[in-house]
Write a structure and sequence with these properties.
Elements lengths: L4 E3 L2 H11 L4 E9 L7 E8 L4 E4 L8 H7 L5 E4 L3 H11 L6 E3 H6 L9 H9 L19 H12 L1 H14 L3 H15 L20 H21 L9 H10 L4 H6 L4 H16 L17 H19 L3 H4 L2 H13 L13 H4 L5
Parallel strand pairs: 1-4, 2-5, 5-6
Antiparallel strand pairs: 2-3, 3-4
């Protein structure tokens, strides 16, 4: 069993970073808690360079610059598994995103594996090792951590290193390593997109059903809720539930009792009731009606063409059809094709372009 260092102070972290600064790659993972908060709260950072493994306890560390420098060092590849949530942790806690990132889940998707393959299943398949995942629901902010919890955490990086090496070897053999690297960067780019509070209303379920005054009210309320949640570090639905926000916008109540009838109760009314009524009394912006993507002309025709193309490409290349084409990629292409503006959609850029271009004339 590989030993690891448990790092609890600035001096230990500095010494560890010196020891691994010339690595060609480091495996990274985070353990965090995010139940009622807007931001994920870091509980543990795991690092392994193929030789030295460490669990870094963030509670007492005040100077992170030495490891941030490693995160930003483009000469060191950063290995992750399913990095999307980890990226949020790095952006909030370290104000940076490690680069370049290689994600084992993405690499595995180019080798006839499901897009959402779990770490334990890939370790079993490629390394023939069974991992104990019983500590998944640990409260990573609680101290002290048990040895079993620490072993669980360090396993998430020590096996990631040989796993990615094996995946990379197979991808070199089938000539898809460069494509897999591109896909990793696209996944990360999407995750780093910053939500504009003024667009928050677009993420409310059934927002497209509202028009005119009601949509303008939803626009104001959703922006207010998003900014408040971010400022106070509260999950948005713990400010006001999405379905209640929609009802308030739709029916435009004028009193606290009417808010209560629409589903805003107790503490929510005490904290936010008057703010909401004040927002509703403000001038209403003129917001264009939301156009659902499936209402675009020829949406179904274009969708069927792309799906048929993906099936043909999959049969020719052996790639997973779900990797080649998703609902998000279809919608992005349809909007681009009909609106005729904006940058090229993903299926006509990067590694997908030579595959789909013949079908998109």
């Amino acid at each position: 069993m590989l030993t690891y260092q448990f790092i609890t102070n600035n001096a230990q972290l500095s010494n560890y970073c010196l020891a691994i600064k010339n690595s060609s790659a480091i495996a990274l993972d985070t353990e965090f808690v995010r139940t009622r908060t807007f931001y994920p709260h870091l509980g543990l950072l795991q690092v392994f360079n193929g030789e030295f493994a460490a669990l870094i306890d963030p509670i007492a560390i005040t100077d992170w610059q030495c490891i941030i420098d490693l995160f930003r060092n483009d000469a060191i590849e950063k290995y992750f598994h399913s990095c999307s949530e980890d990226i949020e942790v790095f952006m909030h806690h370290f104000d940076c995103v490690p680069t370049p990132i290689i994600d084992s889940q993405v690499l595995a998707s180019f080798l006839d594996n499901p897009l959402s393959s779990g770490y334990a299943s890939l370790v079993k398949k490629y390394l023939n090792i069974d991992l104990d995942k019983s500590e998944t629901r640990t409260d990573w902010l609680k101290r002290p951590l048990t040895e079993k919890q620490c072993q669980y955490a360090i396993n998430d990086v020590i096996y990631l290193f040989p796993l990615i090496q094996k995946l990379k070897s197979q991808l070199i053999s089938n000539h898809y390593l460069a494509a897999a690297y591109q896909e990793c960067q696209m996944v990360i780019g999407r995750k780093c997109e910053v939500i504009n509070p003024e667009d928050a209303y677009l993420n409310i379920k059934n927002s497209w059903q509202l028009k005119g005054k009601s949509l303008g009210q939803l626009y104001k309320l959703a922006s207010w809720r998003y900014q408040l949640a971010k400022q106070q570090d509260i999950a948005v639905n713990f400010v006001v539930k999405e379905e209640v926000l929609w009802k308030i916008a739709r029916y435009s109540p004028s009193s606290l009792s009417e808010l209560d009838k629409l589903g805003l109760h107790g503490k929510e009314i005490r904290l936010y009731g008057q703010q909401i009524l004040n927002i509703l009394s403000e001038p209403i912006p003129d917001i264009p009606a939301i156009r659902r993507i499936n209402s675009y002309p020829d949406y179904k025709v274009i969708t069927d063409q792309l799906k048929n193309a993906a099936v043909k490409i999959a049969s020719q290349t052996g790639l997973n059809p779900d990797l080649l084409l998703s609902r998000r990629l279809i919608n992005q292409y349809v909007k681009w094709k009909i609106d005729k503006k904006g940058q090229d959609p993903e299926i006509l850029s990067g590694w997908r372009k030579p595959l789909f271009e013949p079908y998109c004339q």
